[in-house]
């Protein structure tokens, strides 16, 4: 059985790691030291938000074109069983966070989900992720 910590959302953000050249990192540290940003994370978040804002129109068009659900989408065992029992499968398309409940078995996920396209983060047990590997875009 999956551990709850395998799929429980951890706050409202996902941790990422980046590699940055020494000179660029030095420039970031200089701006932090001079008070433009409170820390490296503040600088990186600000830079990312500025780029997202700069490309907002293109991103919004892509969300519509790709038929993505925006935000947090949770898929329960009951939802997946209902789809399977009706002879239907789900085409999951999420920009944000998709979660698959802890009590969903790999077999149920595989039979109820025809495709899984998540831009952002997917929280599901390792076994469910493995069962859906051939359906993940």
UniProtKB/TrEMBL annotation:
Record field: transmembrane: none
GO process annotations (BP): regulation of DNA-templated transcription
Pfam families: RHH_8
Domain of life: Bacteria
Record protein name field: CopG family transcriptional regulator
Lineage of the species this protein comes from: Bacteria, Pseudomonadati, Pseudomonadota, Alphaproteobacteria, Sphingomonadales
């Amino acid at each position: 059985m999956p551990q709850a910590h395998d799929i429980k959302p951890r706050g409202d953000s996902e941790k990422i790691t980046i590699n940055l050249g020494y000179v660029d990192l030095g420039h970031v540290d200089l701006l932090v030291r001079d008070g433009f940003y409170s820390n490296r994370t503040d600088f990186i978040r600000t830079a990312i938000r500025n780029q997202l804002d700069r490309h907002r129109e293109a991103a919004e068009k892509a969300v519509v074109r790709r038929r993505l659900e925006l935000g947090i989408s949770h898929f329960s065992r009951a939802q997946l069983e209902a789809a399977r029992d009706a002879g239907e499968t789900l085409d999951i398309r999420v920009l944000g966070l998709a979660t698959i409940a802890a009590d969903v078995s790999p077999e149920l996920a595989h039979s109820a989900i025809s495709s899984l396209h998540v831009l952002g983060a997917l929280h599901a047990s390792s076994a469910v992720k493995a069962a859906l590997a051939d359906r993940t875009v």
